[in-house]
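Please review the protein record below. Tell me whether the encoded fold seems credible here:
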Amino acid sequence: MRAPTLVQFTDHAEERIARRRLSRRQIAEVVLAEHSGRRGNPREADWIVSGRGIEIAYNWPDRGDDAIALVVTVWSE
């Protein structure tokens, strides 16, 4: 099964992470661990995953690269 191995962040996601006092590492761990259970998203980002009380919207593959998940935004569950 294809899955991302690297997580990158948009400027918007970086701002949301900082505002919520989360860490990029924490977000990346949730994306990588929960990727197989992702849900489709009808909005700007392709996918949504949940974990550790956080919802994460991301694009994957990012610009055709199967290795990269690009986090677009995060919010609390």
Remarks:
- The CA atoms of residues 63 and 70 lie 9 Å apart.
- The chain has a mean pLDDT of 96.
- The beta strands are 6-9, 39-40, 47-51, 54-59, 68-76.
